[in-house]
Amino acid sequence: MPKYLIQASYTAEGTRGLVAEGGTGRKEAVERTLRSCGGTLEWMYFAFGDDDLYVVVDMPDDVSMAATSIAVRATGAVTSRAVPLLSPEDIDAAVRKTVDFRAPGA
């Protein structure tokens, strides 16, 4: 199952919701949202700095991840980006693939 790193930041509206619900309330909401598209939460941490939240999720496919991302971002309460994660075995498979590429000027 594809794995994604989600980096998110709350808007002012989203921060007010976080204050009202607390971290565990938001975690439950994230788990419910992921389940609705066939996904699961691996881990979730709040932070401060450029991003407010880091989450690793398993989703059945890219379309499910996109659907979840679109629905969440459409609320205006959070901005986010999803980074596909590759396992060491995925990289092993990638380096075994033959790629027909010529460098510029070569």
Secondary structure: elements and pairs:
Blueprint: E1 3-10, H1 12-36, E2 40-46, E3 53-58, H2 62-73, E4 78-85, H3 88-96
Antiparallel strand pairs: 1-3, 1-4, 2-3
What does this structure look like?
The chain has 106 residues and is α+β, with helices and mostly antiparallel strands. The chain has a single domain (3-96), classed as Alpha-Beta Plaits (2-Layer Sandwich). The chain contains three helices and four strands; from the N terminus they run E-H-E-E-H-E-H. It has helices at 12-36, 62-73, 88-96, and strands at residues 3-10, 40-46, 53-58, 78-85. Strands 2-3-1-4 form a four-stranded antiparallel beta sheet, covered by helices on one side. The longest helix has 25 residues, at 12-36. The protein starts with a strand and ends in a 10-residue tail after the last helix.
List keywords for this structure.
single chain, 106 residues, alpha+beta, Alpha-Beta Plaits, four-stranded antiparallel sheet, 4 strands, elongated
Summarize the structure.
The chain is α+β, with helices and mostly antiparallel strands and 106 residues long. Helix content is 43%, strand content 27%.
Label the overall shape: elongated
The domain tally reads 1
CATH top level is Alpha Beta
Rg estimate, integer Å? 17 Å
Helix content: 40-55%
Percent of residues in beta strands: 25-35%
Order of helices and strands: EHEEHEH
Structural class: alpha+beta
Adjacency order of strands in the biggest sheet:
2-3-1-4
CATH topology: Alpha-Beta Plaits
Named CATH architecture:
2-Layer Sandwich
Q: Count of helical segments? A: 3
Question: How many strands appear in the DSSP assignment?
Answer: 4
> What is the mean pLDDT?
96
N-to-C CA distance: 39 Å
- Report the sheet with the most strands, covering strand number, pairing sense and barrel closure: 4 strands, antiparallel
